[in-house]
Write a structure and sequence with these properties.
The protein is mainly α. It contains 9 helices and 2 strands; from the N terminus they run ααβααβααααα. Strands 1-2 form a two-stranded antiparallel ribbon. Helix 2 packs across helix 6 and helix 4 crosses helix 5. The radius of gyration is 34 Å and the shape is rod-shaped.
Length: about 200
């Protein structure tokens, strides 16, 4: 609309543009917002096909990237569908990398043989988000690290590398320091010669 055909001043048009972006009661834009739930299956295919391969154009996907995608989407659960299953049905395509039409054939074959709805698999894979590490939980490593770095449990020569507080002694803890005092190593009355008792 131009300002001449409309009786409203041009500032109203600019105001309406602001409202269409979501700051008022104006109708929403027909383009959905870019969130993980609005990504299509084809867009995720391209993203996972490129994942980890900077030379890839996103048109062909490997079995490895397919498994990463299915694990992230929780299609591969280790019980109903495993990586062995995906490997078997992927190898039936007789190619290391497949395009999206062949990949859909692979999914149909997998779904039919595992008695799972194809649309359920596609929906999970479309809504899993971009490739990468998403769920970082509080793993079990702190207890293992604490156990392995507890110097009070060290034995043998490793025990001598740390003082009582657990602080490393540095070079003195790693090398045998030669005693140049002139006494033999087992002598107990060191530095007592000529001193009154």
């Amino acid at each position: 609309m131009s300002a001449e055909s409309n009786s409203e001043p041009p500032t109203k048009e600019v105001e309406n543009l602001k409202l269409e972006n979501g700051s008022g009661d104006a109708p929403k834009s027909p383009v959905p917002p870019n969130n993980p739930g609005s990504v299509t299956f084809e867009e995720n295919f391209k993203a996972f096909a490129k994942f980890g391969d900077p030379k890839s154009d996103g048109k062909l996907i490997t079995l490895s990237n397919s498994d990463k995608w299915m694990k992230q989407a929780k299609v591969i659960d280790g019980k109903k569908i495993t990586t062995t299953d995906t490997g078997i049905y992927f190898k039936k395509l007789k190619s290391q990398k497949v395009n999206i039409t062949s990949y859909k054939t692979f999914l149909e074959d997998l779904a039919k043989n595992k008695k799972i709805e194809l649309e359920e698999i596609k929906n999970k894979m479309a809504s899993c988000g971009q490739p990468g590490v998403h769920a970082l939980g509080a793993g079990k490593t702190p207890s293992a690290v604490d156990r392995l770095t507890d110097t009070s449990k060290y034995t043998g020569t490793h025990k001598q590398r740390f003082d009582e507080s657990g602080k490393g002694k540095g070079i003195a803890g790693r090398k045998e320091v030669v005693d140049t005092s002139g006494y033999v190593s087992g002598y107990q009355n060191k530095d007592t010669y000529g001193k009154p008792e």
